[in-house]
Amino acid sequence: MADKVVAEVACSAGRRLSGVVITAGLGAALIWSALAQPPEAAGWQALIVALGLVALVSAVRVYRATARKLVLTETQLRDDTGRALVAIDRIDRIERGMFAFKPSNGFVLRLKEPAPPAWQPGLWWRWGRKLAVGGVPSGHDTRALADAIQAMLDRRD
Questions:
Q1: How many Å apart are CA 60 and CA 44, to the nearest integer?
Q2: What is the rounded CA–CA span in Å between residue 23 and residue 25?
Q3: Segments making up each domain of the chain, as ranges
Q4: 10-residue block means of pLDDT along the chain (157 residues)?
């Protein structure tokens, strides 16, 4: 069966809360800093407030994105809404070493050809020939997902 689920990755409530609180805390601290002790130049104050607002919006995006699960089937990696991240046959290799440019607790898939950019903060991002998974999910879960993808690539090659 082509749609058999091989592995899943979900974010625990504690890890989600931690990611959202840290990101929102940064936004609140920036805004408070700009308003409590404003810099002499008004442009700097506006910039710091804008960065704080961006961090608060990011916190909301992290909250929404980490509610999703990543699902690996025999044909593709997708989220639980059915949105395909990449087909298995488009993956060239997986990078998950200590010196790989990857998210925390995660890995990077090198794709055979560039894909449209996309981002779900705290869960995954895709840019050019790279698709990175990690951030908020636990290292144990992402390691199991990476192992399953590696096994699929080994069987293919």
A1: 25
A2: 5
A3: 8-65, 73-156
A4: 82 94 97 88 91 97 95 93 93 87 89 94 94 93 94 88
**CB neighbours of residue 8 within 10 Å:** 14
Q: Position of tokens 């130049």?
A: 41
Residue type, 61: R
> What pLDDT was estimated at residue 103?
86
**Residues in CB range of 119: below 8 A, 6 or more apart:** 125, 126
Which residues make Cβ contacts (< 8 Å) with residue 24, sequence separation at least 6?
A: 55, 56, 59
Helix, strand, coil tally for the chain in percent (to 5)? 45, 30, 25
Query: Alpha carbon 131 to chain centroid distance?
Result: 9
44 alpha carbon, distance to own chain's centre: 30
Bridge partners for 154 per DSSP: none
Q: Alpha helices of the chain — where are they, by DSSP H? A: 13-36, 42-65, 139-156
Q: What is each CA distance from 139 to 24, 45, 55, 79, 96, in whole angstroms?
A: 23, 38, 25, 18, 11
Q: What is the pLDDT of residue 157?
A: 75
Q: b vs e for 40-62, b when ≥16 Cβ sit within 10 Å of the residue's Cβ?
A: eeeeebeebbeebeebbebbebb
